[in-house]
Specification:
single chain, about 250 residues, alpha/beta, Rossmann fold, seven-stranded parallel β-sheet, 7 strands
Length: about 250
């Protein structure tokens, strides 16, 4: 018997940070499965990965800063006006300190606050906006972006690891609160994924990452998009409060 991919016809999906990388790959995956998809990202331009499907009748792209509550409120209102109530939220946006990252004893609180804002508080704010209506409709799926850095505890990423472990705690507590309303809340924790930020790493760093990964290779954004689609679908209806690592075995529990 042939296995048919589950569709999302009629479902409305929000993807934060959906202009590039994992977010864009996930937005495209949901579009290919029939969903109405709304993307918000600071980088919605001709160079964004989402450009391949810009103009799609079921895609809405908004340029905006996810750390700004007013921007998120306005975005959510626009989504409801065009597509209706939100069924699935993928809180994808987040990042480390990148060029400002350092060991903890050399770090600055300004960078910590930025990392927590973009990697944890954005997920809390966006979830707060959509969860009440999901409760009323007694249906919803929220998938939050953590990182295997939270489990491994990579040096030089103390603030990022702390924020991403915060995502894990947020996911578990929110899952308990919303489970009786038919709302599932889960998190994913990717490891090395080939995104624009990753492509800027030096070749020797890439090789070190590969050696530290039992699978021996660096995954593509589509490898993550498929997992998000699974967690958003009915096949995962009995899964909630979980964090699924997508890291080629770098961290095993």
């Amino acid at each position: 018997m042939a296995i048919v991919a589950q569709g999302f016809d009629g479902k409305t999906v929000i993807v934060t940070g959906g202009g590039n990388g994992i977010g864009a790959a996930t937005a495209k995956r949901f579009l290919s499965l029939g969903a109405k998809v709304a993307v918000i990202d600071r980088e919605i331009d001709s160079n964004a990965d989402i450009r391949d499907v810009k103009g799609h009748p079921l895609l809405m792209c908004v340029a905006g800063d996810c750390t700004d509550l007013a921007t998120l409120v306005e975005f959510e209102a626009k989504v409801k006006e065009r597509f209706g109530s939100v069924d699935i939220l993928f809180n994808n946006v987040g990042q480390s300190g990148r060029e400002r990252a350092s060991t903890f004893v050399q770090s600055e609180e300004e960078v910590w606050r930025f990392v927590f804002e973009v990697s944890l508080l954005t997920a809390m704010r966006m979830s707060r906006l959509v969860a009440p209506e999901m409760q009323k409709r007694r249906y919803g799926r929220i998938i939050n972006m953590s990182s295997d850095a939270a489990f491994v505890g990579d040096s030089g990423l103390v603030d990022y690891a702390a924020a991403k472990m915060g995502i894990v705690g947020f996911t578990r507590a929110l899952a308990r609160e919303l489970a009786s309303y038919g709302i599932n809340v889960n998190a994913i924790a990717p490891g090395a994924i080939r995104t624009r930020a990753h492509d800027r790493l030096a070749p020797d760093i890439i090789e070190k990452i590969k050696k530290a990964t039992p699978a021996g290779f660096i995954a593509e954004p589509d490898d993550v998009a498929g997992v998000v689609a699974f967690l958003a679908g009915d096949d995962a209806r009995y899964i909630t409060g979980q964090t699924l690592l997508i890291d080629g075995g770098r961290w095993m529990t």
